[in-house]
User: Fold these one by one.
Assistant:
Number 1:
Amino acid sequence: MKKAREFYFLFDLVNKITLPEQDLLINKPKADKQMGLFATDDIPKNAILYVLRPMNCLKAATTYTIQYDDNLHIPDESLKVAKYTNHGCDPNVNFFFVETDEKEIQVTASGKRYLVYCVAKKDIVKDEEIRFDYLTTEYDMKEKFNCSCGSPLCKKEIQGFKYLSNELKLNHRDLIAPHLKKYLIGIPDPRPKFFYFQDLLNKIPYEDSKLISVKQNSFKQNGVFANFDIPDGVLLFHMDPIKCWDKPDLYTVQYDDKLHISHPQLHLAKYTNHSCDPNIDFKYILTDKKEIDQTADGKRYVVYAMTRRVIPKDTEVTFDYTTTEFDMDAKFPCKCGSKLCRKDIQGFKHLNKEEQMKIKYRIAPHLKKHL
Ligand SMILES: [Zn+2]
Ligand SMILES: [Zn+2]
């Protein structure tokens, strides 16, 4: 029997794992005879497709290079499988620049070195073409071209970030490479700053955001609501599991088999209601902080609330209790109204195998052994 494929996520990088070479992708000619990059398997959202290790960058761009800094372009040799990644205006992957100390990696003008991670922005199905938005890396391309990506968001003529209107530049704000950020300075931006997981990797000091607040929902219960339109992948608040409780109650969040995050550490999780199709997940991110409770297998995690799709302003923020709770004291009838609603909620243990597999990339570490 074919062994199930393993995927690696941006979240795994805090473990400092070395990603194995994977055969997730293949280059082949498309219907129009142009080369393209295609998925050889279904790939879940947030999975890493490949890592670029920029070395010996070129001073000038070619047709295939990816821009790394103002005057540095990643050459073919470093691109490997990525060489034939075509452009898309509504792409299924994005590049994340994550700082590294590795001395052989090309240094930028600001003295930094980056590994460039290609990450799935959405679930990708087998044989789907992999596309990224060239405007997130290229400032001024040698030649413009007419895009035929077919997306309703298609910008038609692609020539680099430089040629975008201020409005479109701002739309790209959180997805662009570090060397493009300076071109946003001075453009009035009504939106707050959003904090992403990759900011944690780049050691940008984290603070809980003011993006959400507690209000009454339509059932006259407390709920958490978005104060702004919040993009996908944004960290909203965090929990430090310190002095965990050994018994759950209605509000606690399960941290390990016998540990539950206590009320003082829950912050807004206390008011975050359940949905079977939630718009946030709790991400358990390894930490060295000694004050954090250790799990039975000797690990420590900070738990971050992260959006899993765009949350429009005034929408209630919800998470799926079955992604953290194994076996709840009492079941409750869900009224989330989602097409995916499971009606009775009593924890991960009470889901059937198919339902458990559907959420396997989103569950807390202590639930993984039950798969
Ligand atoms: Zn397009
Ligand atoms: Zn439901």
Note: The chain has two domains: 10-184, 197-370.
Number 2:
Amino acid sequence: MLSLSLAMVGLILIGFLSLYKRWLTLAGALGMIIMGIAIVYAFHIAGLIAIFLFFISSNLLTSVIRRNQRTTKPSPEQRNLVQVLANGGWPLLAALGQILLPSPFWLGFYIVSITEATADTWASEVGSTLGKAPFHLRLWRRVPKGLSGAMTGIGSLAGMLGSLIIALDSLTLIPHDSFKNTLITICTIALLGWIGQFVDTLLGAYGQARYHCTVCDCFTDKSHHCDKPAHHVGGLRWMTNNAVNGLSSLFAGALGGSIFLFWIN
Ligand SMILES: [Zn+2]
């Protein structure tokens, strides 16, 4: 109970910091605090550290890259409740699942969905800023930056690094008795996260809604461009960038959970 109380105090402090730094809106900060309490209850402080590694590393990466590059991109927007749930919804489901129906499945689901989200954020932030023209998986050629479904070498490398950081942290959550088991654990988690991130790119290439803007004659993922509605030219209308992120995290989580069912007993 002491750790739960300490975690609650910590979460409220981080909530205030996120508001002060304009990382989160009020509803986003409240959602984060409730999510954090459920996570500590299910997966203890070690579990909470995993999701904070994701949130903090992603925010720091975004801030540092955009400051150094002086890109024309706006600074990272304040995340609202929907965006907090878009990234934290599956981990929250895993925490609730663990509380109501304890099973190793939820631990695997939790860790791997966070690993995937970290890999994806790192890959797209680093790739879109430092990478050259990304390679599109469906068009099978290089395309201008900003189109979903494309990947860069440096972005993939960053995604691998992001995966590795969560995989290292997951050692505090997964039983491992020997050096060999430790290595297997790290490699498995990192690989699952990276596979999930690749599925994210595939979904972005084949399923995500695509639009054409007649004003600037460009293809975009956004339904509005140059202050006007853009024409839908392909992909599923409902499959927005958030839907792609949510589906690939779900895929990665379900894959990780299924493996944990056989792995940890
Ligand atoms: Zn346009």
Note: The chain has a mean pLDDT of 89.
